[in-house]
Specification:
heterodimer; A: mainly alpha; MetI-like fold; 78% helix; 0% strand; B: mainly alpha; 77% helix; flat; Amino acid ABC transporter, permease protein (chain A); MetI-like_sf (chain A); transmembrane helix (chain A); cell membrane (chain A); transport (chain A)
Chain lengths: 274, 235
């Protein structure tokens, strides 16, 4: 205990004022809802249901993770040249990169997915001629393709924004030391930019997980797809509840892990004043 | 060129169907907005409260509706309300409760929008110095008056950039409601694409219309932003 905390006034006596009552009532509602949900799930649960759909939903869960990971990695690779374009002093390249980012961020992912998956049919002869038709006929590849392009636009914007936050003087200092452009980029600019980009990258991963549910609409059996299939066969609402729980667990785990990672990577920026 | 005759209005083209879809898309987004903003503000007040239970209750709300995929929230609302109410009313009547896709979309998108909006409002609350509240009290304003006359105008200004972003996201998220049968822009384009066998053309048109809506929104939001900052000193 430092001397500082001893000088704090004693806590005020807490009365049952309106916010306190409201807070307890609302928490009570949440807890009651949680308990009711648990009772419902326990009551509705049957080994038959678990055997028939449980394993499939878990495999759908895995498909979701695969789809998201693959799209994020390919998107990260594509985002590098796009981010470079966004930062380029050349107005033509800058405008092209801006148009790319604007298109993918300004239209719904669902419409983009339809544009690729159904739209590819308009160019069947041309795609067949170059041997790409088997690629675009496959829903899985179309989803990975669309999601990668979509996330690359968002990631490019994150990366470009983060690089802009690195002060010019950092680059000038590198040049004054006679470092090569490559060393300045990888040892000075990127490490500082990536710390800034960490949080938006985390948000983008979560957005991609949530957005990937759209793949179920073009017949991919990811977690959402398996859930819809199970519901259309059993008309049992608990399928959607289980899916919600799985998605929430996935997103929350990721968010917590990201927080831990961020704290570790930014520990040199925290000043310990106490 | 013959592709563009497909967009003409009347019996020959799909222009009027697509225009109706655009209207549905915009109406849904505009109808969701006030509820999303109001609930978001209330949830933000909860998060900003000194009462820990109120803060937790508000945080649970955000965690759930920000963590779930929008599509899943939509299905949960659409089927959940139908099944729940049908079962609830089963002892009295054997009527089935049906929820229109528009209403389901409004509820689901409102839940998602409000949970994000509450975060925007919360950080706006944190950007208002405590001296503003104290000044209101010193002037003899009641807490309600301080909130309405002193805090709210500043809150709107601080929250506007974040809310503008959320509006653009909301506009795009309405596309999901086509999956449960709402005849919005995506669905009408899909019908046109199937009938004419020109899927690429019609989905490209849909994308361009969304882009146009985004651009128009940006202009409008920019104007609102300038209006909200009209009291600031010129730079």
């Amino acid at each position: 205990m430092s001397a500082k905390s001893d000088l704090r006034p004693p806590p005020r006596a807490r009365r049952w004022d309106a916010p306190r009552v409201a807070g307890h009532v609302l928490m009570g509602v949440w807890i009651a809802a949680g308990v009711l949900l648990a009772i419902y799930l326990v009551g509705a649960f049957s080994t038959d249901f678990a055997q028939r759909y449980g394993f499939r939903m878990l495999s759908g869960f895995w498909t979701t993770i695969e789809l998201v990971t693959l799209s994020l990695l390919i998107g990260a690779a594509i985002s590098l040249p796009v981010a470079a374009g966004r930062l380029s002093p050349n107005p033509v390249i800058g405008a092209l990169a801006y148009g790319y980012v604007y298109f993918f961020r300004g239209t719904p992912l669902l419409a983009q997915t339809f544009l690729v998956y159904y739209g590819a049919g308009s160019f069947r002869a041309e795609l067949d001629a170059v041997g790409l038709w088997t690629f675009f006929r496959d829903a899985w590849f179309c989803a990975v393709f669309t999601f990668s392009l979509n996330t690359s636009a968002y990631q490019a914007e994150i990366l470009a924004g983060a690089i802009r936050t690195v002060p010019r003087s950092q680059i000038e200092a590198g040049q004054a030391l006679g470092l090569s452009r490559y060393v300045i980029a990888t040892r000075i600019v990127l490490p500082q930019a990536l710390v800034v980009a960490l949080r938006p990258y985390g948000n983008e991963v979560v957005l991609m997980i949530k957005g990937s549910a759209i793949a179920s609409i073009i017949t991919i059996y990811d977690l959402m797809g398996e859930t819809r299939r199970a519901f259309s066969r059993s008309f049992d609402f608990q399928t959607y509840i289980w899916a919600a729980i799985l998605y929430l667990v996935l997103v929350e785990t990721l968010r917590r892990l990201w927080d831990v990672m961020e704290r570790r990577l930014t520990r040199h920026l925290v000043r310990d004043d106490t | 060129m013959e592709l563009f005759t497909l967009l003409s209005f009347g019996d020959a083209g799909w222009g009027d169907e697509i225009a109706r879809g655009v209207l549905v898309t915009v109406t849904l987004a505009l109808a969701t907005l006030p509820f999303g903003l109001a609930i978001g503000l209330v949830v933000a007040l909860g998060k900003n409260s000194e009462e820990p239970t109120l803060r937790s209750a508000a945080n649970v709300y955000t965690t759930i509706f920000r963590g779930l995929p929008e599509l899943l929230t939509l299905f949960l609302v659409f089927y959940g309300v139908q099944i729940g109410f049908t079962r609830l009313l089963a002892p009295f009547t054997d009527a089935r409760v049906e929820l229109s896709p528009f209403l389901a979309g409004m509820i689901a998108l409102g839940l998602v929008f409000s949970s994000y909006a509450s975060e925007v409002f919360l950080s706006a609350f944190r950007g208002i110095p405590v001296g503003q509240y104290e000044a209101g009290r010193a002037l003899g304003l009641r807490p309600w008056q301080t909130g309405r006359l002193v805090i709210l105008p500043q809150l709107i200004r601080l929250a506007l950039p974040g809310l503008s972003n959320l509006w653009l996201i909301l506009l795009k998220d309405t596309a999901l409601v086509s999956v449960i049968g709402l005849s919005d822009l995506v669905r009408e384009s899909g019908v046109a694409a199937r009938v004419t066998r020109e899927p690429f053309f019609f989905f490209a048109v849909a994308c361009l219309i969304y882009l146009t809506l985004s651009i128009l929104s940006s202009f409008a939001l920019g104007a609102i932003g300038r209006w909200s900052r009209r009291g600031e000193a010129e730079h």
